[in-house]
Design goal:
With 173 residues, the chain is of the alpha+beta class. It has one domain (9-155): 60s Ribosomal Protein L30, Chain: A. It contains three helices and eight strands; from the N terminus they run E-E-E-E-H-E-H-H-E-E-E. Strands 2-7-5-6 form a four-stranded mixed beta sheet. The protein has a two-stranded antiparallel ribbon with strand order 1-8. A hairpin with a 2-residue loop joins strand 3 (36-39) and strand 4 (42-45). Helix 1 (50-67) packs across helix 3 (109-120). The chain is globular and about 55 Å long.
């Protein structure tokens, strides 16, 4: 669904399946995590780029702010969640990333997933080794929303399907 936009829609989060949601907008998700180079036959990992550093700082700040939201806030129920982080259980993640048309055409979902997953390590979950299943979806939306659904799983459980994060309804219907 390349031409999807959330700007003119009301979204309804799938609270029947996911335990927690992380919602943000305006974050530019870098598509490349690390570069490597070979020097004298040895593989050397280059330090993170400035865009990765900036993304990690912005995500970390946002996640810390989310943890301070009380369970019963004045926000609509759809947008409140209990942030009982860091998770220690096995987890399923579903990630939806809104991108500009230009970024949509050039950014790889696997690289964005790695960047997003790494940015939550130590805050949302102790270690990303706890993620046993994930899906990522990109769509065009200039407000660059980032929606992450997290489901706690029992150890060694089988996550055979990943339901949608949200449904949408036009504001003009």
């Amino acid at each position: 669904m390349a031409n999807t936009t959330l700007q003119n829609f009301i979204i309804s989060l799938n609270r029947d399946f996911y335990d927690t949601f992380i919602l943000s907008s305006g974050l530019k998700v870098p598509a490349k995590q690390f570069d490597f180079k070979v020097i004298d036959g040895k593989v050397i990992k280059k330090p993170p780029t400035e865009s990765i550093k900036e993304f990690n700082i912005r995500m970390s700040t946002w996640l810390e702010q989310l943890k301070k939201i009380p369970l019963y806030s004045s926000a609509p129920k759809e947008f409140t969640s209990r942030y009982d982080w860091p998770f220690k259980e096995d987890l399923l993640l579903n990630i939806s990333v809104g991108l500009t048309k230009k970024d949509y055409d050039i950014k790889d979902t696997d690289n964005m997933a790695k960047t997003i997953i790494d940015s939550m390590k130590g805050t949302v979950y102790e270690d990303d080794v706890r993620i046993v299943s994930f899906a990522i979806h990109k769509f065009i939306d200039n407000s660059r929303p980032l929606i992450i659904g997290i489901k706690k799983l029992k150890t060694n459980s089988l996550a055979v399907s990943i339901p949608p994060l949200f449904t949408k309804k036009s504001l003009y219907e």
